[in-house]
User: Which sequence fits this backbone?
């Protein structure tokens, strides 16, 4: 016997095919590109003397980003508008695109706000946040008596 996952959305016995109509409309790339909010995934890591934040944001330029620091909160935002104009015969076709996002991160008190650096390379925005000198991990061997 084969087990099949039951999905009540797909297996609507009262109106077969009803959901398929809406699935085909809203899964179309025209709607998908315009209805999905794109917020880039973030990786946050810590080393002995730095905090590292990486955002996956392909297709942007470094000029598209705005990074600010207010009251110990690091804000990363993007606002991008594009226009594609193609003229053919007696008509013109224009497509507009607008995308934006904001990501905010509260910095720990051990962060050195004056030493924050950012770079953008191959679709990854990397932000390096140094730790204050007194917060850096000091390792040493402890003698057992």
Assistant:
């Amino acid at each position: 016997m084969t087990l099949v996952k039951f999905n009540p959305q797909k297996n609507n016995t009262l109106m077969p095919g009803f959901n398929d109509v809406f699935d085909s409309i809203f899964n179309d790339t025209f709607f998908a590109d315009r209805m999905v909010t794109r917020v880039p995934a973030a990786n946050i890591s810590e080393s002995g003397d730095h905090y590292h934040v990486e955002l996956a944001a392909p297709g942007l330029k470094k000029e598209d980003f705005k990074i600010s620091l207010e009251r110990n909160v690091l804000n990363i935002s993007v606002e991008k508008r594009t226009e594609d104009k193609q003229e053919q015969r007696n008509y013109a076709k224009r497509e507009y695109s607008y995308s934006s996002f904001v990501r905010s991160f509260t910095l720990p008190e051990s962060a050195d706000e004056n030493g924050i650096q950012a770079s953008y390379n191959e679709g990854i925005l990397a932000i390096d946040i140094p730790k204050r000198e007194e917060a850096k991990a000091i390792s040493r061997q402890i003698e057992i008596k």
In short: The chain has a mean pLDDT of 77. Residues 9 and 19 are 7 Å apart (CA to CA).
